[in-house]
Amino acid sequence: MIGLWRRLFGRAEREKLAPLYRAIIAEARRPIWYREGSVPDTLDGRFDMVAAVLSLVLLRLEAEADEHARSALAYLTELFVEDMDGQLRERGIGDIVVGKHIGRMMGALGGRLGALRQALQDGELDEAIQRNIYRGVTPDLAAKAVVREGLIALRAKLAATPATALIQGSWPA
Predict the structure, then answer these.
(1) Which of 10, 32, 100, 173 has the smallest set of CB atoms within 10 Å of its CB?
(2) Which of 165, 159, 171 is nearest to 68 (CA)?
(3) pLDDT value at position 104?
(4) Domain extent listing, the chain
């Protein structure tokens, strides 16, 4: 019975975070990342941008002492898993291997989250961007600067947005 309540409560909490998750996806799909930033407009490139933007939001919420913000971390991650599961199934990936793909995606998200956290602490994003967004392919300096400055600006906007507003889906302008 407790498990049923948790599933029902968790579903309601995830649904409350759906506007924020949609805003994360919209940000990650902005054309500037792909045109001016030369992020590959491929399945992998789009995944990398979703992971980068989601990581910035997770880091923002992680910084909060508020329990509601902390629980939002888990629910946002669950929304990510549900979204990726659906994306894989739409592409014809079957039940047998979808779990393995999701496991790799979660590992990739965790790796990017850690790399971004460290890069932001060190004040050096270039290597993390090179490895996690461009996957080792060297873009021109202007394109890399667009992505670096865009992520830095997004981080600042997220920091200036109250966590409660962010959780309710208010995306910084």
Answers:
(1) 173
(2) 165
(3) 76
(4) 2-167
